[in-house]
Amino acid sequence: MHRKTIAELSRELSAKKISSLELTQLFLERIKQHDQKLNSFITVTEDAALQTAKMADEKRKQGQAGPLTGIPFAHKDIFCTDGVKTSCGSKMLDNFLAPYDATVVRNLKAAGTVMLGKTNMDEFAMGSSNENSYYGPVRNPWNLEYVPGGSSGGSAAAVAACLVPGATGTDTGGSIRQPAALCNITGLKPTYGRISRYGMIAFASSLDQGGPFAKTVEDVAMLLTAMAGFDERDSTSINEPVPDYTTTLNNPIKGIRIGLPKEYFSNGLSNEVAKVIEAAIKEYEKLGAIVQEISLPNTSLSVPAYYVIAPAECSSNLARYDGVRYGYRCKNPADLQDLYKRTRSEGFGSEVKRRIMIGTYALSAGYYDAYYLKAQKARRLIRNDFVEAFKNVDVILSPTSPTPAFKLGEKVSDPVSMYLSDIYTIAVNLAGLPGISVPAGFVNGLPIGMQLIGNLFGEAKLLNIAHAYQTVTDWHQQIPEGF
Length: 483
Prior knowledge:
Layout: H1 6-14, H2 20-38, E1 41-44, H3 46-61, E2 72-76, H4 103-110, E3 114-119, H5 153-160, E4 166-170, H6 177-183, E5 186-189, E6 210-214, H7 217-227, E7 257-261, H8 271-286, E8 290-294, H9 302-317, H10 336-347, H11 350-363, H12 368-389, E9 395-399, H13 415-419, H14 426-431, E10 435-443, E11 446-453, H15 459-472
Parallel strand pairs: 2-3, 7-8, 7-9
Antiparallel strand pairs: 1-3, 4-6, 5-6, 5-10, 9-11, 10-11
Helix pairs in contact: 2-3, 7-15, 9-11, 9-12
């Protein structure tokens, strides 16, 4: 039962073959049994989950159930959850109990999901490996010596290991798609503004976007339908109608135009990964898609632009953690300045401090024009590349990550090498576009993901094209040994 998809579990619940309470107990037992190896959860809300599951079963009896009613679920520990610790993977918020639910949490609660707990993550969503958490690194269920990707590695590892059927993540520069690829699951980063950011603790406000993880595209479509929508409490939320994304999944894709950016298939891409992606392209050609080479000439600007803009915004957003109002506070401060200095130096980890310092420097007098303003101009050039590309193609196909998962500790002392693992995902965030990663094969026993990029609010088409691939392949059905 634990290997079934959300769609399959929904049908089992509707047919009364299993109750939500039984399903919740099953997954809670799996967390107890396996998570000591993975470290994918920070908090498990067992009592609340069992109570919610009983209520879900009552709703089914009364005929009030929706497709997600009674489905066990987990939230990345960056989403505020009323009365439950929301730590952001940081010592700074280790004692913070959120006083309200994020809109994403509220929407999924209204859809009937049963929250099992909060998943581990890179501190304040800063990282590509999930090694930056105050609670220790998350391990990849495909090989416990390897990283699961980050920053949403806890959610990705938990779904891949069948500890939970679905989970939320956030994506600032690839933090849903990259861990989805490294863990052999499906992860969607929606259009910026498609999902409310209210109650999602900010890292880089113009880049952050929440999204779903699950085993299949069908499951992700179900979750997106529940999560998306306008929110007047979020000034970046877009007032666009939300379709039922599951209704167009099986549309034919014959004649769909798929663009292959030549810049994504050049130096830096592992030969083994390239072969996997080439095989996926052939599957699309068999399905009747038209594949053509395109150019995104400003791709090389993505990483440098991102690593000015994101740290600058992080420097601003994280200024609020000063030991005065909430969160960690140093002991016995001598004065106000000592309180600020020691609280922040003791409360933040090394990667967060690194990015705050870079961002503060980039925003400082005399450097704003030289760095931040130039990075924003580069961002516009990157966006313009996509605008031109989508005049000729429906979606863009690329690898999600240039290599398979790497070993724990392998890149900790080389942050630049770590940053380059997001080279194919960052431009999507800078342009505000939707992107999805789906399982596409294996190299030396480690999963490889294929990324599809859509135009603004093109999630329905993106999900349709990704689903078509999953109907003719079985990579997404592979489960790590022992789970």
